[in-house]
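User: I'm new to structure prediction. If I give you an amino acid sequence, what do you actually give back? Let's try with this one:
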Amino acid sequence: MMTSEIKGQDIPKRLLSSMTKKQTIPSALLFYGPPGVGKFSLALDFAGEIIGDKDLVKRGVHPDSINIFPEFSEYDSGKIFRIRRAGEYYKLRYFKASISIDRIREIQHYAYLTPMKSDWKTITILQAENMTVNASDAFLKILEEPPKNVLFILITLNPYLLTETIFSRTLGIRFHPLSPDIQKDIIGDPNLRYFGRGIEDTLLLKKIKDMEDELEKIFFHTERKVRIKDWNESLVKKWKIEFLLIYLWKMVEDKYYNGKIDSDRAYKIFSYLKKAYEYYYSNIAAEKILFYLFLKI
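Assistant: Good question. You get back a string of structure tokens that encode the predicted 3D arrangement of the chain. For your 297 residues, that looks like this:
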């Protein structure tokens, strides 16, 4: 039974509960959706359900369950897991990271070992889209001939960032954004103003609230030609582009709902932000995206 501690996501919980009841567990699942909506929490819960020891799995110490995080230069996997359990993974979300072919080789070796305490083994891969090309190729070989009673759970924001061959060999489960009421309940702050798609977005918005006055002045009270003249690449380091896109989107929503900008202007800005997101996911340089926003909004 899926735990009620995980807020929202009733459809994914029902799907996973049905799998355990009917014993129709596939070799690979793909959890996709916004950051901070319960994908990893539900992955741990489901892994604990089929292995038979939720406590050890959630603590990351069960011998038949492992979690693979992207590699960050200053953090080992143990520290990243502790950061994740503390609800602070959002601090790492937009730093450059990768999953190397060496990590996939470790997975391959682990997957074919006999389980120590359970009939099943689970391998959860977070931000699976960060696999390098060689890592993706190596992982595909495992999926093509999956070991018996081994469940892979891939977690990603966008399933289309994975290779088509990996995507086609997984059973996708979509996670939806969380409502403001659920987020308020989880975070425990009744005074939150801006809400992202999930907890990570909202915590970012809360953390970078000091940007608001600066962005207000530049994007809504400065002439475009003056704004462009003042543009410089140092701003990209000051404002991580993903943070900026999230915050601008919420500012525009707020201004529109409160009658501070009309629907025509709101529509134009949203279209520019949508294009900026497309550039971001296409790996266009952050400097170029920021200049585009200075030029258009």
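You can read the tokens as a compact description of the fold. Here is one thing that stands out. The CA atoms of residues 104 and 135 lie 6 Å apart.
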